[in-house]
């Protein structure tokens, strides 16, 4: 059976995204859980065939660990998923001044910053996953607390629970399914809203280079959904541009734009995949 790697232990948002991906493909996968995002990424093509991981949060932006791995590796993006994300604060005391340790996943921390800022004299201990945060607060004695996914715990276990501690009620995270192999659904199916992700390498920097790259898309009415720069980590001031566009790389306008950009810069095509449906539900 094919193996799918995701962030564990069981119960993480990444696992929910992985289950949603499996359901959408109608295929069978054995899920392998890893204790960190880095370990999930390193497993693809080694012990697993595919990985499902967070790439971008609604308010916090990109998860740079995943973004940089994508830029540097030869993985393809085969699917995109969006999940609503809601956090609860749990502790064994309602006296917030008594709480000396707070367990929170390193990406979740930024999404609950306002609530966390209200805790004085509390040591913030970052974890690798939200379920690690839950397990730590369950295991450790004393006045500790955690930020955990709403619905991941039995509310009767804790004396104090505060729901919806995320800064934005409509909090969402975008996940990607990453594979060593290009998507098998490479054919441009009608009625599908495709997205294509590209990396443009700026190794011969000159005035107007980025403007020319953008013009290649704009002149063909190809819509960009995201553009982000990441340092190459080779030389200060040198960047890779990750560009997401609407459309499949086999569609004429996108293919022509890529060909044109290829003449002035290096382009890496990370694949085309059906765009995730945007959640409009506002969390109460
Ligand atoms: O810890 C989890 O539950 C995860 O799946 C990780 C993760 C992330 O790293 O972005 C996923 C969704 C939320 O944005 C917060 C945490």
Automatic annotation (TrEMBL):
Gene3D superfamilies named in the record:
3.30.70.260, Periplasmic binding protein-like II
Keyword list, A-Z:
Amino-acid biosynthesis, Aromatic amino acid biosynthesis, Lyase, Phenylalanine biosynthesis
Q: Return the protein name.
A: prephenate dehydratase
InterPro entries cross-referenced by the UniProt entry: ACT-like_dom_sf, ACT_dom, Chor_mutase/pphenate_deHydtase, Preph_deHydtase
The cross-references to SUPFAM superfamilies, in alphabetical order and at most eight, read: ACT-like, Periplasmic binding protein-like II
Q: Which CDD domains match?
A: ACT_CM-PDT
Q: In which pathway does it act?
A: Amino-acid biosynthesis; L-phenylalanine biosynthesis; phenylpyruvate from prephenate: step 1/1
| PANTHER family reported for this sequence | PREPHENATE DEHYDRATASE P PROTEIN, PREPHENATE DEHYDRATASE-RELATED
List each copy of the Prephenate dehydratase domain by range: 3-180
**What Enzyme Commission number does this protein have?**
4.2.1.51
Which reactions is this enzyme annotated as catalysing?
Answer: prephenate + H(+) = 3-phenylpyruvate + CO2 + H2O
Q: Which organism is it from?
A: Paraglaciecola aquimarina
Domain of life of the organism in this record? Bacteria
List the Pfam families. Answer: ACT, PDT
Q: Where is the ACT domain?
A: 198-272
